[in-house]
């Protein structure tokens, strides 16, 4: 019960109500799937905390000025990170070429011990990241920036796996 109250405190009440409403209205459909198809999953699957992992993709300082609403993405990412931490959902973070683009912004409050993996590809699905996943991980919650590149490639790769 304590975790539920902590989770409720982590998410604004309106967002929690919206998520509950979306979950109830989905009833076997995927609200993110366009009628013409697309990259969305073939069916709606509720997230199970025991089968999920949170991917935090390339939230680096050099992107702050280049990405519109970067600070808003940081706020939302922190909510996801805090919720994952409360529910014991593993978190994996990546940094694209940190020598040139910097490290994960201080705004993102990753729990101590969160693996932060350097990468030089446009996907988080690198061997070091995938080695941290196991047979119980059937769902990936993806947050981060560069949705048209990195997040897109992660989604394509994971769509083939799941």
Automatic annotation (TrEMBL):
Q: Give a single Pfam family match.
A: Isochorismatase
Organism, per UniProt? Pristionchus entomophagus
Domain Isochorismatase-like, first and last residues per copy: 52-153
Q: Please give the InterPro entries that the UniProt record associates with this protein.
A: Isochorismatase-like_dom, Isochorismatase-like_sf, Isochorismatase_domain
What is stated as this protein's family in its record? Answer: Belongs to the isochorismatase family.
List, alphabetically, the PANTHER family matched: HYDROLASE, ISOCHORISMATASE DOMAIN-CONTAINING PROTEIN 1
Q: Under what name is this protein listed?
A: Isochorismatase domain-containing protein 1
């Amino acid at each position: 019960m304590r975790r539920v109250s902590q989770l409720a405190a982590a998410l604004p009440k309106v967002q929690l109500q919206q998520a509950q409403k979306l979950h109830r209205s989905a009833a076997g459909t995927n609200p993110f799937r366009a009628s013409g198809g697309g990259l969305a999953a073939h069916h709606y699957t509720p997230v199970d905390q025991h089968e999920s992992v949170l991917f935090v993709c390339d939230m680096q300082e050099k992107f702050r000025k280049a990405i519109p609403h970067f600070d808003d993405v940081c706020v939302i990412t922190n909510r996801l990170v805090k919720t994952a931490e409360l529910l014991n959902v593993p978190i994996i973070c990546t940094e694209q070429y940190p020598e040139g683009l910097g490290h994960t912004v201080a705004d993102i409050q990753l729990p101590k011990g969160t693996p932060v993996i350097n990468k030089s590809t446009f996907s988080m699905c690198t061997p070091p990241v995938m080695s941290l996943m196991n047979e119980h991980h059937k769902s990936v919650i993806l947050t981060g920036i560069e949705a048209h590149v990195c997040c897109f490639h992660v989604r394509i790769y994971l769509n083939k796996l799941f």
